Amino acid sequence: MILLYSRIKTILYIILIFLFTEGVSYSQPRYMAVQSLASISKQNFTLYQNYPNPFNPETTIKYALKQKGFVSMKVFSILGKEVSTLVYEEKPAGSYEVKYNAENLPSGIYLYQLNVNGNIQTKRFILLK
After folding, report:
1. pTM given for the model
2. pLDDT tens-digit readout, 76-114
3. Residue 125 and residue 100 in contact, taking contact as beta carbons nearer than 8 Å
4. Domain 2-127 class?
């Protein structure tokens, strides 16, 4: 019972972080940990907030790579279910823009996650229909 309470408390804390901050960054292994600004700045990529936000039904997500790397960008529901994969390929250094159309999804809060060579950054966006 205590273990279940602890897990529920942790999940609620993570949801609150996503609702009241711009996002969370972490590196492998895949557990949530808020990093200091110094460690985030050492990453070899930048993930920008989507625009417009809130959106209906299309939004633009920009990111920049400082060096070549394998890029994976995925969209998740607020409950953690993977909704779609936007990018899954090797990319050279540079700036990129991804258009995301969510016309088949219900209104709600979603997360988009950029994984570059095992370094991960996540931000949230809101779909309003």
Report:
1. 0.68
2. 999 989 999 999 999 999 999 999 999 999 999 999 999
3. no
4. mainly beta
